[in-house]
Write a structure and sequence with these properties.
By secondary structure, the protein is an alpha/beta fold. The chain folds into three domains: about 5-40 and about 200-275 and about 370-440, 3-Layer(bba) Sandwich (FAD/NAD(P)-binding domain), CATH 3.50.50; about 85-190, no CATH class; about 275-365, Polyamine Oxidase, Chain A, domain 2, CATH 3.90.660. About 30% of the residues lie in helices and about 20% in strands. It has helices spanning about 10-25, 65-75, 125-130, 140-145, 150-165, 175-180, 200-215, 260-265, 330-340, 365-370, 400-415, 420-425, 425-430, and strands at about 5-10, 30, 45, 50-55, 60, 80, 85-90, 100, 195, 220, 225-230, 235-240, 245, 255, 275-285, 295-300, 305-310, 315-320, 355-365, 385. It has a seven-stranded mixed beta sheet with strand order 8-7-16-17-18-15-19. The chain has a five-stranded parallel beta sheet with strand order 10-2-1-14-20, with helices on one face. It binds flavin-adenine dinucleotide (FAD). Flavin-adenine dinucleotide binds near residues 8, 11, 14 and 398. Flavin-adenine dinucleotide binds near residues 33, 55, 226 and 279.
């Protein structure tokens, strides 16, 4: 008989693994150190602003098949909103120019040939040059392939790539960007349709997942910090939490879905990413008109993307380490000038603001750090790894994290060749569970 699966970490990777395993009929216990789920993707009530905010703006796109498979599995598709078409409004703060990038929905990207749809100042040939990314090698950086200083770089590749990779582009891996573009623009314009949580990240990703797990009889323990894992010759034998130990039965299994530095402390000899980049968010308590865009990309400003929520305009700046030490008032004022311009609001007075700095938002997506990503398998037969930092082939994103959770769940099922493996059919999630392949070979523990 199948044993219990102990999923440690209730970020989206752990939640996706737990939901997947519970759906497959496994007994699941989910442990989380914090008093809430969601990890780096969650909502909370902010006292200063007097309303709920997300820790950071998160944009999904229709091509995020793992994330949407998860959202469908927890019955939360109705919590997403967006423009309903693959459109991306931009403002150039240097020139004041505005444009809207309009992908056509089909696979043949004829939007590139249409001056009314593509980025002003670019040519069809500029887009074709990006095909060189398909031949990127593991050591290549984005700027080795896409020439900086060109209008298309400044107005398109830079805003998209910085947001996806959260790493300065002179350092960032070209291979990771190629993968992102293959699953978005390369999959056809419809795949680029933006999707945004209507209420918040927790209402879309976390609360429905926890509710689903409870309905399936899973045990959920918040405030349970894993301190150590005890190992035998080829399997983990016990989990030591701050508040007690859990001895594992012979058939029990673990999905370790904690952050990279925590996993590196818990698992002997684990090589994992160890450099991070910051993301900065500023939330302004101000209502923009309902008919204004869901978000605006900003070129040549301090802000990079501005999102409109019910009564909040939120700014994201990726790879934001350079801004972390800037005095809060100066930062808030500088970002607000961009926001006010993007949404045609008065620059004075600046509304109440909350600035959230996530210093270790994601691992730095450099070729060196990518080489440190472990696969989901470990040398212990009952321990699988999950998290956006594992070797998903994608940068640290919701899509990558959720895919890693499903992969870890699949590996545990596949390891035992039983009911779980059969129950883990692709149709549950609407995409293929990555089979154990080269990327899941024991890169993980040396
Ligand atoms: C500000 C910000 C903006 C972002 N924007 C986007 C975006 O627009 N689009 C996008 O796709 N992605 C975005 N991301 C990235 C995305 O949020 C992450 O990739 C994703 O949430 C990672 O999920 P995870 O489950 O791998 O890790 P985490 O969310 O970090 O989950 C790990 C969990 O493990 C718990 N834990 C840690 N140690 C222990 C322990 N010892 N015992 C028990 N539990 C433990 C933690 O509390 C946490 O809940 C953004 C991230 C940030 C921070």
């Amino acid at each position: 008989m199948s044993g219990r699966v102990h999923v440690v970490g209730a970020g989206v990777a752990g939640l996706a693994a737990a939901v997947r395993l519970a759906e497959a009929g496994r007994a699941v216990t989910l442990y989380e150190a914090a008093p809430h789920g969601g990890g780096r993707a969650r909502s909370y009530f902010d006292q200063a602003l007097g309303c709920r905010i997300d820790n950071g703006n998160h944009l999904l796109i229709a091509g995020n098949r793992s994330a949407l498979g998860f959202i469908d599995a927890i019955g939360a598709r109705g919590t997403l909103t967006g423009p309903g078409a693959p459109v991306y409004p931009f403002l150039d703060r240097a020139s004041g120019e505005r444009w809207t990038l309009r992908f056509n929905t089909g696979r043949i990207p004829w939007w590139m040939a249409s001056p009314a749809r593509r980025v002003p100042g670019t040519t069809f040939g500029d887009y074709l040059k990006a095909l060189r990314l398909r031949r990127a090698r593991s050591g290549d950086r984005v700027v080795d392939i896409l020439a900086p200083g060109t209008p298309i770089f400044r107005r398109l590749w830079q805003p998209l790539a910085i947001a996806a990779l959260n790493t300065p582009l002179h350092e960032a891996s070209a291979v990771l960007l190629a993968r992102v573009l293959a699953e978005s623009i390369g999959a056809g314009g419809a795949a680029c349709t933006p999707l945004i949580p209507r209420e918040g990240l927790s209402e879309t990703l976390v609360d429905p997942a926890l509710a689903q797990l409870r309905r399936r009889g899973a045990t959920i323990r918040f405030g349970a910090r894993l301190r150590a894992i005890e190992f035998g010759a080829d399997r983990a034998t016990a989990l030591d939490f701050d508040n007690g130990s859990e001895t594992l039965a012979a058939s029990d299994e673990i999905v370790l879905a904690v952050t990279a530095p925590v996993a590196a402390r818990l698992v002997p000899d684990l090589v994992a990413p160890d450099r991070y980049c910051a993301i900065l968010n500023a939330h302004y308590r101000v209502a923009a008109p309902d008919n204004s865009p869901f978000f605006v990309g900003i070129v040549g400003g301090t802000a990079e993307w501005v999102f409109r929520k019910k009564d909040v305009l939120s700014v994201t700046v990726s790879a934001a380490d350079r801004l972390l030490e800037m005095p809060e008032d100066d930062l808030a004022a500088s970002l607000w000038r961009d926001v006010a311009a993007a949404y045609a609001l008065p620059a004075d007075p600046m509304p109440p603001v909350r600035i959230v700095r996530e210093r270790r938002a994601t691992f730095a997506a450099t070729p060196e750090q990518v080489a440190r990503r472990p696969g989901a398998r470990t040398r212990w037969r009952n321990l699988a790894l999950a998290g956006d930092w594992t070797d998903t082939g994608l940068p640290a994103t919701l899509e990558g994290a959720i895919r890693s959770g499903v992969t870890a769940a699949g590996i545990l099922g596949a390891g035992r060749r039983g009911a779980v493996e059969n129950a883990l059919s692709d149709k549950d999630f609407g995409f293929k569970v990555a089979p154990p392949s080269q990327s899941f070979e024991p890169l993980s523990c040396r």
